[in-house]
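Notebook p. 47: complex prediction with adenosine monophosphate.
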Amino acid sequence: MCGIIGVENNENAAVLVSAGLLNLQHRGEESAGITISGKEKMKTFKTMGLVSTLFNEDILINKLPGTAAIGHVRYTTSSKSSLLNAQPFQISCIHGNLAVVHNGNITNFHQLRKELLKKGSIFNHTSDTEILLHYIAMSKGNLSSIVANSLKKLEGAFSIIILKDKTLIGVRDKNGYRPLVLGKIGNSYIIASESCAIEALSGKYVRDIAPGEIIIIENGQIRKSFFYGKSKKQNTCIFEQVYFSRPDSVMFSKTVRKARLKMGEYLAEQMRGIKADIVMPVPNSGYFAALGFSRYSNIIFENGFIRNYYVGRSFIKPSQSLRDLTVKLKLLPIKEVVSGKEIIVIDDSIVRGTTSKRLIDVLKRTGAKKIHFAFSCPPIISPCYYGIDTPSKEHLIAANNSTERIKKYLGVDSLTFLRLDNLIKACAPESRKENLFCCSCFNGKYPTKVPKKIYKEIV
Ligand code: AMP
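Predicted complex, structure tokens below:
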């Protein structure tokens, strides 16, 4: 996962992009970067760590004058977590200087990389994004045909923003796996992973960039919008609404918050008959599902965990030992809320089982009388090849164990997963109920060809 944003036609482009990135920080905490152009020579700044590490006044005002900028926050899914692989990638080629930011995973990356290496290409990074730059550099024609022809070679998930001089180019792969939205602020256009970043800048969400669409923006005008390809069906990642996207972002014309409230309602319906004193979320991702559950079931909603906000998201850590430690430091139960109570605890998902196991142990030690654990999505049984870091099958607890076995391992009184049909209903746009989603992590059905294994690094 990653967060991307671009702004054009604005004297404050660098400030707007950095403020936007702060509002996409939930999509990745490992590195942050910005490229600016339009006035002086194109420049890029990157850092490991949070957006706040990168952007100080000196960089934003003095070192980054320009009118168009793109930015990126990174969460490694396909290559090494290092400054070298931090984005944007800026290159100088026959078409001039250009920079690119990418969210997703190019699934045929290894094959394309091998082909390019044989032809003599040189690679500086181990990230899949670099492939696109090679194709752009090698293509001839006008900007739109260069981009379209380059994209046709790529398979998998890519929401991309390209910056060339004063021009912004937004691209979404033809399945629409990852989100990408268009917004306006005054006379400038913004492209971003999520609408929350646009609204935080007091901008207006205009629309989603459609699957397969390429949009070229310059001087506050949409110069061209066209499709490089189409897929039979839209396959937007359903896990965005379950976990990744911010609740105030709009997806399929409703907020993610609304979808999560619905997930909670459907869970409550599935768990009818289970009595409890309170329903509580695992903060923050279980919050709205627990609220929806409470409203539907009339079971009192309580915040039973204190979250330490100074510890990052537990999963967005590149190693298991770091993940274990952050779970321990991050969530602490409130004794007066849970002690002696029969509780329903709602989290968004179980991946390896680290978080839920640790939380259940600590809830028991704090005196919870009975624990019913529920997840606002189905069991994750297959890895994601499209940009979410769900590990290979052997590490996925639900890929290798039945619900009954997981229940025993966790030591809970009941264990419920939201059914896939209910999840799809909760996430679907209000006007259309068909399945517009990639649910491959829940059903193993991949919309496109996937590599035989998940590549973490290039050797
Ligand atoms: P685990 O401890 O491995 O079972 O991970 C589950 C926890 O990580 C849940 O509380 C989720 O909120 C969060 N989570 C689930 N899937 C992901 C993902 N792909 N990336 C980051 N965080 C996730």
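Notes: The chain has a mean pLDDT of 92. The longest strand covers residues 96-103.
Next step: compare against the earlier run before touching the bench.
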